[in-house]
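User: I'm new to structure prediction. If I give you an amino acid sequence, what do you actually give back? Let's try with this one:
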Amino acid sequence: MTESELIAQWNTARWHIIVSQLAPTFLLAVTVWMLVDGLAETELPVRLAAAGILLASGVLGAITQFAAASEGRAIIESLRSLPSSSTLSRRIVAMGRGVEIVRFVTPTIFVLTFFALLWALFL
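Assistant: Good question. You get back a string of structure tokens that encode the predicted 3D arrangement of the chain. For your 123 residues, that looks like this:
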């Protein structure tokens, strides 16, 4: 692939990373709001449904985010291997650590938040 094609692929992967964080973040925030509004005092089936929705959304979001970040990592490796590169390519390559954070740290934060919400829902 050419440098231009790789940069276009990077832009697509970056957009997927951003979008993959929106729904889970919104759902977690809404769940916190619903907890403040009394969700923890509702009947058990309602709380189980809320936990199931959080789990399904979180798993799908994490898979999407990990996949997009893995694609971004592959693009970075391809850009790194080009014989000469533009300033933009070098900046994208420098983002390599950021992609690793997206692959592992962000999903870990979501998992910890999920467990905190489970605690608030059931304990």
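You can read the tokens as a compact description of the fold. Here is one thing that stands out. The mean pLDDT is 92.
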